[in-house]
Structure formats: C-alpha cells, structure tokens
What we know:
Jelly Rolls, Heat Shock Protein 90
Amino acid sequence: MPRLFPVLSRLLLGLWFALSPSASPAQQALPVSLRDALSLTLAAPTPAPPDGAVFTPVKLPDEWVAAPGDAREPARWYRLAFDAPAVAPGTLTGAYIPRVCSNLEVYLNGQLLHRGGNMREPLTRNCYASQLLTLPGAVLLPTGNRLDIQVVGQPLSRVSARQRAGGLSEVIVGALPVLAAMHESQLLWNVTLAQVMAAMLVMIGVILLALAWVRRLHYLVYFAVVAIGWALLSARTWWRSVPLDSATLELLVCVAFVPLAVCGVLFLLRYCRVRRRWLDVLLWSQCLILPLALWLAGPERLFATATACYTVLALEVFAAIGYFLAHAWRVRREEFWLLGSTFAFVALMVGLEIAIQDRLLQLPQMHLVHFVIPLLLCALAFRLVQTFALTLASAEGARQQLEQRVQQISADIERNFAHLAEVRVEQVAEKERKRIAADLHDDLGAKLLTIVLTSDNDRISTLAREALEEMRLSVRGIAGKPVQLADALADWRAETVSRLGEAGIEIDWSSVEPPEQRTLAARSYVQTTRVLREATSNLIKHSGASRAVISCTIADDFRLVIRDNGRGIPLELDGKLDRGHGMASMKHRAKQMHGQCLVESGPGYGTVIRLTLPL
C-alpha cells in the first residue's frame, strides 16, 4: 500500500509530461543525439580510465556480446565529445540516456555528475529505467565538452535475456524539460505500467485462488499461479537493488519461467478436461531437468541454454494453445473466436520477443511484452470469471427448477399417499360392509323368511315380508354392487304399479330404454327406491288421488317425476313442506346423492314431485 501513491503519482506525472505543451519540441531547441563514442573495456570498474589506455571508436547503441577473459564484473568506459546545445534563456541543460545496463557513473569534464547505484556486485540494475541528469552550467563548456560514462554489467552470454545484457544507448543532450518529458514517458511505459499490471495480476490471482478453493475448480489454481508468477517476475523491471549477484539472479529468473509455463499448459489442459498422469509427470519433471541443464551449462553459456529452454517451453505452450482452440471449436464454438484472437496476440508477442532475443530486431526502448501479456491475462481472467458466473447462474436456475420439481413430486407423493390411504380405508370399509351384509342376509334374513312362511297371523306375516324386503334393500346398498339401470327401472315399476294397483289408483308409467351398459351406484339405487316408496306411500295415504303419472327420463342425469290428481297439500302446511308427509326425508336422501327433490303442490291441484340425480 505505501508504494501505491508513488506509482500513481508517477503515472499521472508521465501523462502530464507527455501532454504538456511546455515540453513540446516546438518551444524548445531540438535535443542533440550523441552516437559516436570511444570505448574502453575493463575487467572491473575503476574510479577513472587508466592512464595511457587506448580507446576504440564505437557506435551507440552498443550491446555487450562478450566480456574480456573471465572477468566477473566487466566494465566499459564511453567517452563522448559534444558542444553545449542551444537552449532558451533560463532553461537548464540535461543529458538523457534511454537505456543503460546494469548501472553507470557519469563524468562531465572530469567532474562526477551522477551515479546510478552500486557499481559492484550485487549491482544496481537499471536496465529498464532510463537515466536523466542535469548538466551544471558551471561545469558545462560552450564547446569541447567531454562526457565520460562508466558502465558495469554482464555480456549477452551470461544473461538469460537480451534486455539485461550490458550496454549503452545513444546519449541525448538538450533542454531539460524536453528530456524530462521523454524520461517520464519511458518510465511510464517500462516501469509504472508494469507495476500497475503486477498489482492487477496479484489481485486477480488471489481472487481466482479463493474461487478455486470454494468451488474446487482446479484449473483456476493453475491460472492463478500463472498470474501471480508473472507479477512476481515483472518485479525485475522496477526492483533495481536485488541483493543477489548477477549470475544467481539471471539463473533464478530463467528457472522461474519453467513452472510458470508448466502451469500455463496445465491450465489449458484442465480447462479442456484433459487429465493424463504421464503427461503431468512429464511436464513437472521439466522443473528439475531444465534447471539442471542450465546449471551444468554454466554462466558463460547461460544465454544459449536459456534460449533453448525458452524455445522448448514456447513450443509446449503453443501446442497446448492449439489443442485448446481445437477443443473450443468442437465444444465451445462461442469461445473460439474470442480466445483464439487472444492467444493469437499472445503468439505474436512471443514471436516478437523471440525475434528480439535472436537479434533479428533492434532492442526497443519500450518493452510492450511487459504490459501486453498482463493485459491479455486480465482479459482471459475476465472471461473465466464471466464463464463461471454464467455457469453458476445456469446451475442456480437448474437448482431452482430441480427444487420446484422436487416440490411437485413431493406434492404428488403426498396426494398419492392420501389417495392410497383413502383407498385402503375404502377397501377395509367395503370388506366390513360385505361382512355385515352377509351376516344380515344369512342371519336376520333367514329368521324373517321363517316368520313369513310359518306365521298364521296375516299382519305379522305382512310386516315380516316388508321387513325382509327392506333388509334385502339395505343389504344391496351395503354390498355396494352397481345395479343395471334397466333392472332398477323394472324393479321400481313393478313395485310401484303393484302398490298403487292394490290401493285402486290408476297409474301411467313412462320411461325410456336406458343404454345397456348404464349402471346406477348401489347407494343411489337404495336411496332412490326409498324416495319412490315414500312418495308412493304419501300418494296412497294422503293425496286422495285416483290417478298418478310417473315418468323417467335419462340424459346427463336421471329424472323421476311423480304427478297425481289428488287434493294437494293442505293450506295449513303451506311453507312447511319439509315438516310432514316424509318430504324432509326425501329431500335429505336426494341431497346425500348430490341431487335435489322438489315438491310442487296446492289445494285442489294435486302434487308433483321432481327428483333429479346425477349419473
């Protein structure tokens, strides 16, 4: 956190210098670029060039390809001659050095002006940071100035990357405000943005590690390691005073790329759900084999060995990318173009870096790979989080649907259980009814029949016969066996015609022929029989009618109409039909069958009873 404010301030300052009109070349004299120099190579840094030393001409920028003998701390003096540039009055003169590696001392006309840090191991490493110094007017001459620069570093053969090989770029002399703008711009692109990207990658890595821990997503662990590992490796761009000698630091930097590349390959494979034990063992074994090869090759051949290692790792990463894109084309077509363009850009950056390392391209002053690769990693992390969020939302939707389905199934199970319980109760009740019916028929029925056949008293015999008929009707209702509607109509007609005929009442019975398969529930048959008997009894006992008309119709329901020409119901019972003549009993029975029984009557107009039952 304490380093955040300097980083942000440098970022803003660099943008201000880049956009500030006061730093534009149009308002200041153009700076002078010094490219011709004299060079002297030594085995170690010295306070001043040795007397009588012979300098050789050299063109800047100068990159160190080899060092003298087995020098452990090679140094090189550069001598440049220049005249003081023309600057605006009141403006300071400065010197700007875009690149020096690893460190330098600057002398103007024999006076020490600037030292970049420690000149002996462990060296201060300024390879990614440009240098800006002020040329004091008291020391600066109008003409014939001599600028001596002593540079310490390691030759290309002893480093793992060309960017950290010893060397010196051209030296630019001019107005200090103009050079300050150039200096801040280069620090912005090479150092400040690298710090910002490193902080972003660390935060992304921590978030993905937490996400992987919570959701058990192992492929996110590998990506998080890549993000955090790249952030740690980017520290070499801004951490200048590392307490390690150059050989050890270069070896560690090169070795650190091995597990980083392995994690990148494993991330791509795990994302494609590829898990091969032999492949994992082969990949992780490189973390031992490649460092051993670098150690055996020795520091004098580090660059060549590191280049071979980087080539192997790059080929592995490219192979994994190819497999990943093929898998995305087959399975996740929507991700192919996005990830394909991302990886293509990564491949382009890696290709440019290889060309730079092989010296096919000049060493750039601004290293795009230091913030382009982190940007691509951030974009890929955003896509991973987005995919995870979409998958999580889909899983949440599926979970809700599953919960709804479980609730529906639970409700169905409860309903089925209740239905089964009702069926079981009904079965038990049905069994009990049949037992009671059998007992009534076998016991009470036999005794009533005996009374009918053996009694000498006609009244007792008639009552026994009526009780036997009522018992048989009750047994039929208890047994619960459906009755054919045609049979029911025949029984009702026979009984009604017989009773009214014995009472001397003329009867007109009309009914339609019901369908053969049409049945009537046993309970409905019993209750309808009792309603018809009650109506017939009332007609015989109370109506005084000489004629009755009974009609039966069958549609969606069953309708029975009993009409007589009697004297009707007396006025004193008007409005109280439910209290006499069995009317309440008939209506109650109809209601039990979910039907209705209506009575229409008036003195001198007869009586009409309408019974309607659902079928």
